[in-house]
Specification:
CATH architecture: 2-Layer Sandwich
Number of strands: 14
Structural class: alpha+beta
CATH class: Alpha Beta
Low-confidence stretches: none
Number of helices: 8
Shape: globular
Helix content: 25-40%
């Protein structure tokens, strides 16, 4: 293997690229920053999906699907959100042979479009909490792409919930962090993680609090592996996510969002791989 793999102690980034290629996990796609996930790599991802999906459903969330294209006006309604994502947006301005009346953003995340529908679906306190999750692809225009770790297009799950109180939203975000993410990462992915709170400057754009699972990789660097965000009432106010409480008064919901992506494949490679290449935990091994 020494002939085909760079030693991780000599050049860790090169070793990582060698493992991705030689283990036939993925290749660079034709458009900059995209990737083709090969059958062996996708088989591992499917097992990750299954394990995570079971844990997410155990917390009461149900799967749904929302559009890939989001009207630009949706993102512009939340100032911190659009400012935080502006450098990463891919925008469609022409389609069907003509210029669009309103540009469409290729989904970087779905707080805005899902917020629009939460506002339609939530009427009464009896509708709450409303717990949704979707498995999808997203696009963020990365300056320095790296397969699995930071690509222009990647696969993930994103959860979005609406609650009657701040405390209920906080408890649910914390539950996802521990019962879905940390449990999967430690018990299945076999990577110990530091669980904690992001600093204000590192928060998700539009959030009032961000929680994270950080894994230490074999090069001594931390990798963000999954995050949960308390969105307060920021998106509820903008997208009119309100409910009638049990006294008949109109109240604003409290919302959360949370996600984990194909970056988990990068964590598997960098957390377990060695001089001989890829090492896969038994519960994720497709063979």
């Amino acid at each position: 293997m020494a002939k085909v793999l760079t030693s991780p102690s000599e050049d860790f980034p090169r070793w990582y690229q060698d493992v991705v290629a030689k283990a036939e996990l993925a290749e660079n796609g034709p458009a900059r920053g995209t990737m083709v996930i090969r059958p062996y790599g996708y088989a591992i991802w499917e097992r990750m999906q299954s394990e995570l999906d079971d844990r997410i459903k155990a917390t009461g969330a149900r799967n749904a699907y929302f559009p890939l294209f989001i009207p630009m006006g949706y993102l512009q309604r939340e100032a911190d959100h659009v400012e935080g994502f502006s450098p990463e947006l891919a925008v469609v301005t022409h389609a069907g042979g003509k210029e669009l009346d309103e540009p469409l953003v290729v989904r970087p995340t779905s707080e805005t479009v899902i917020g629009e529908y939460l506002g339609k679906w939530v009427q009464s306190y009896r509708d709450l909490p409303l717990l949704l999750n979707q498995w999808a692809n997203v696009v963020r225009w990365e300056l320095r792409p790296r397969v699995f770790l930071r690509t222009t297009e990647f696969l993930w799950q994103e959860g979005h919930t609406a609650h009657a109180s701040e405390e209920d939203a906080r408890q649910y975000a914390t539950r996802i962090l521990h019962e879905a993410y940390e449990d999967f990462m430690v018990q299945v992915l076999a990577v110990p993680v530091y669980v904690g709170r992001k600093t204000a400057s590192e928060r998700f754009p539009g959030a009032i609090n961000s929680l994270t699972c950080e894994g230490m990789m074999r090069d001594g660097k931390a990798l963000q592996m999954g995050t949960c965000h308390e969105l307060g009432q920021n998106f509820a106010r903008i997208f009119d996510i309100q409910y009638l409480d049990d006294s008949g008064a109109q109240q604003l919901c409290w919302t959360t969002s949370w996600g984990a992506s194909t970056r988990l494949m990068g964590a598997l490679i960098m957390g377990h791989g060695d001089e001989n290449g890829l090492v896969v935990p038994p519960r994720l091994a497709p063979v």
